[in-house]
Amino acid sequence: MTETTLAIGELEQLVEEILRKGGLSPLHAGAVTRVIVAGERDACKSHGVYRIEGCLRTIKAGKVVPDAEPALTSDGTAIVRVDARGGFANAAFELGAPVLAEKARTMGLAALVINDCTHFAALWPEVEALAELGLAAMAMCPSYASVAPAGGSAPLLGTNPFAFGWPRRDKDPYVFDFATSVAARGEIELHRRAGKTLPEGWAIDPDGNPTTDPEAALAGAMLPFGGHKGSAISTMVELLAGVMIGDLTSPEALEALGTTTLAPAHGELILAFDPARFAQGRAGDPMARAEVLFEAFAGQGARLPSQRRFAARAKARAEGIRLSADEMALLERLREQGLEAV
């Protein structure tokens, strides 16, 4: 099958054109474009161009405010708040991140609360951005109910992603980002599109029985990773990034949205820490001590999280981003037809 190679900037221009034609304001089109292209650049196909259709469907359904202007409030506390006003979370994060970083350096730690946002894309771009500013960071958010709790038989929890970043001097940061379900929902959708069966243990069907059929899985429920451990971490995300910040939990988000085919609306919590402030007065440089730990991983032949992604990024920067004929056909169709294509 013929592939097309685009420079990163060329793909950004194409994706932003599609999103602006679909109705997003320049603010949101730019922010969403950056995370979509980052997914393709880093070979994270589950968060790449295939997600554009879901973005456009959400706009067409009127479930996101395409020209929302996020509003930031910051007081003397360590909490920064951004009201996304119904828009995508990406622009809200870009507004709040510099203030979050400044507070974290001043106070040692700080939190960014994003309310009333429509979630889109992975969380690793957010913790990576903070790690590049010299901060350790955590990010989490609920989703919509699509995961059965351990021992359960119906959707209750979201995929509830959790991400962490640690800064490194003159090296790519240590970053991980994972759904608390066995796999991201996007992975199941990609299996469905490819006509492939799922691995055992990923999902149950609408009757609560184990299934490897992506269609049955999407109609039923995914499963948490690690059984009761993943279920507990997912519940923690519901409490911290839903209940605690006064926003929707995954069951509430599904009730408000009415479908799992659109991007969910809820909130997001991002925490930032200044390692130098936390280690102040103690012996040793936290950055150097972290490198000793990372070198021990390498000494055992173990791969750090995101190493494969950073390698893909370097290749994309040097050689461009490869897109399949089907992916290019999708992009051309969306550029020509806009919202009529979904």
TrEMBL record:
<protein>
    <submittedName>
        <fullName>Ldh family oxidoreductase</fullName>
    </submittedName>
</protein>
<keyword id="KW-0560">Oxidoreductase</keyword>
<dbReference type="InterPro" id="IPR043144">
    <property type="entry name" value="Mal/L-sulf/L-lact_DH-like_ah"/>
</dbReference>
<dbReference type="InterPro" id="IPR003767">
    <property type="entry name" value="Malate/L-lactate_DH-like"/>
</dbReference>
<comment type="similarity">
    <text>Belongs to the LDH2/MDH2 oxidoreductase family.</text>
</comment>
<dbReference type="Pfam" id="PF02615">
    <property type="entry name" value="Ldh_2"/>
</dbReference>
<dbReference type="InterPro" id="IPR043143">
    <property type="entry name" value="Mal/L-sulf/L-lact_DH-like_NADP"/>
</dbReference>
<dbReference type="InterPro" id="IPR036111">
    <property type="entry name" value="Mal/L-sulfo/L-lacto_DH-like_sf"/>
</dbReference>
